[in-house]
């Protein structure tokens, strides 16, 4: 049996049916059903304004315990930024600080390893 199943939903903004591949284990360990599955898809459609083609559409699918889609809500995003630039900057700064901390920790561990190895070599 495949690990995924293809389902279909209708986007009222694109005015098109879209296929989505869902992991079969997506329904496991949910507190209640239907549950919300949220993702982005790009604007499609022949009768769409050229400015709208490729726009991000926030999509919420409501999926039951049998992986059936019970409903869909779609909202065109005003901008392509889901996360504000300030939040992005804060996340990048936090990640950079964590990377620097981990690099320092790695250097300390490598130094301790070399010292232990030298000590063992002297004893052995």
Characterize the structure shown:
This protein has one helix at 85-123; strands spanning 4-11, 16-23, 35-42, 56-63, 69-76. It is of the alpha+beta class and 124 residues long. It has two domains: 4-76, no CATH class; 83-124. The chain has a three-stranded antiparallel sheet with strand order 3-4-5, with no helix packed on it. Strand 4 and strand 5 (69-76) form a beta hairpin. The longest helix is centred in the C-terminal third of the chain and has 39 residues, at 85-123.
Compile the SSE list and pairings.
Elements: E1 4-11, E2 16-23, E3 35-42, E4 56-63, E5 69-76, H1 85-123
Antiparallel strand pairs: 1-2, 3-4, 4-5
Quick structural summary:
The protein is of the alpha+beta class. It has one helix at residues 85-123, and strands spanning 4-11, 16-23, 35-42, 56-63, 69-76.
The gyration radius over C-alpha positions equals: 24 Å
Number of strands: 5
Strand line-up across the major sheet = 3-4-5
What is the count of structural domains? Answer: 2
Distance between the termini: 56 Å
What does the overall shape look like?
Answer: elongated
Mean model confidence by pLDDT? 87
Order of helices and strands: EEEEEH
